[in-house]
């Protein structure tokens, strides 16, 4: 089994190949938002390094979002094109859920992707990878509240009413975008004895195609294969242009621009 995995939901695109036996090679773009230019050359480099022919591939996997709308479109479209050209099945990998791989039995794992204006795409996963807050679009404050509520529940079940070495680890580019809010939350959570709020180190903070590949192996073995046509992006919310079209503000903006133009 050889799976080609593509991840483009964040600033840096990446490609990976795995053999399903624990071996995985990863290439990451050296420039932000350079997905369209770098994806296929990185894929070919990996194929050459592994000495693989196109016929050796078993499936193509894509990280489907949420994240950068443009990045998602490029990654999913590329994976679809490769799967169609090589007549291969595709594997759809939800991006936030890839962070369940970070669950180590010791910390709550909280991925947050910046969606601007106090909003995030996020989730809260238990020590064993269970959903405390299912992946979705939220206000950052709602994510914080879910963490607090869970820890309060845990504390109420402790014989002494105290948390024992509880920790919460945040991942994703939301860590950078909301640094001050996270610092304030960390200070607040210090009031819960024994609870540590941590930012994941940068070398493991962000999503990459290696995570996509590992998730894809599980799906491949479970028979969760789809056709290229069924591989679709998951933006989790409509684009700003789509929202403006839906609520009529796009038409109003165009009318206002025309009025200003005619008034010149």
Intertermini distance: 65 Å
Task: Briefly note the structural class of the backbone.
Answer: alpha/beta
Order of helices and strands: EEEHEHEEEEHEHHEHHHH
Biggest sheet descriptor: 5 strands, mixed
Beta-strand percent range = 15-25%
Rg from Cα: 21 Å
Strands in their spatial order, largest beta sheet: 3-2-1-4-5
Notes on the protein architecture:
This protein has 264 residues and is α/β, with parallel strands linked by helices. It is 40% helix and 22% strand. The chain has nine helices and ten strands. The chain has helices at residues 35-49, 69-86, 140-157, 174-177, 179-189, 202-205, 209-221, 240-247, 249-262; strands at residues 3-7, 14-18, 24-28, 59-63, 90-93, 108-116, 119-125, 131-139, 167-171, 196-199. The strands form two sheets. A five-stranded mixed β-sheet has the order 3-2-1-4-5, with helices on both faces. It has a five-stranded mixed β-sheet with strand order 8-7-6-9-10. Helix 1 (35-49) packs across helix 2. It is globular, with a radius of gyration of 21 Å. The N and C termini lie far apart (65 Å). The relative contact order is 0.17.
Output the keywords.
five-stranded mixed β-sheet; 9 helices; 40% helix
List the helices and strands and how they pair.
Blueprint: E1 3-7, E2 14-18, E3 24-28, H1 35-49, E4 59-63, H2 69-86, E5 90-93, E6 108-116, E7 119-125, E8 131-139, H3 140-157, E9 167-171, H4 174-177, H5 179-189, E10 196-199, H6 202-205, H7 209-221, H8 240-247, H9 249-262
Parallel strand pairs: 1-4, 4-5, 6-9, 9-10
Antiparallel strand pairs: 1-2, 2-3, 6-7, 7-8
């Amino acid at each position: 089994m050889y799976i080609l995995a593509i991840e483009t939901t964040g600033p840096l695109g990446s490609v990976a190949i795995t053999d399903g036996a624990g071996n995985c090679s990863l290439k990451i773009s050296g420039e932000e938002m350079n997905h369209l230019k770098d994806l296929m050359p990185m894929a070919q480099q990996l194929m050459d390094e592994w000495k693989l022919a196109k016929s050796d591939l078993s499936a193509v996997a894509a990280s489907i979002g949420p994240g950068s709308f443009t990045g998602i479109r490029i990654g999913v479209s590329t994976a679809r094109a490769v799967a169609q050209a090589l007549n291969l099945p595709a594997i759809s990998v939800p991006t936030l859920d890839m962070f369940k791989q970070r669950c180590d039995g010791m910390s709550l794992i909280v991925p947050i992707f910046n969606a601007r204006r106090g909003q995030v795409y996020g989730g809260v996963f238990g020590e064993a990878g269970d959903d405390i807050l299912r992946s979705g679009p939220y206000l950052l404050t709602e994510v914080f509240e879910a963490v607090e509520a869970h820890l309060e529940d845990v504390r109420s079940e402790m014989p002494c009413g105290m948390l024992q070495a509880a920790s919460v680890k945040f991942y994703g580019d939301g860590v950078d975008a909301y640094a001050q809010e996270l610092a304030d939350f960390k200070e607040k959570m210090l009031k819960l004895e024994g609870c540590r709020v941590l930012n994941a180190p940068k070398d493991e903070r962000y999503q990459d195609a290696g995570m996509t590949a590992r998730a894809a192996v599980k799906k491949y073995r479970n028979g969760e294969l789809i056709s290229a046509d069924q591989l679709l992006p998951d933006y989790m919310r409509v684009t700003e242009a789509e929202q403006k079209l839906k609520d009529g503000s796009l038409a109003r903006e165009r009318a206002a621009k025309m009025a200003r133009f005619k008034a010149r």
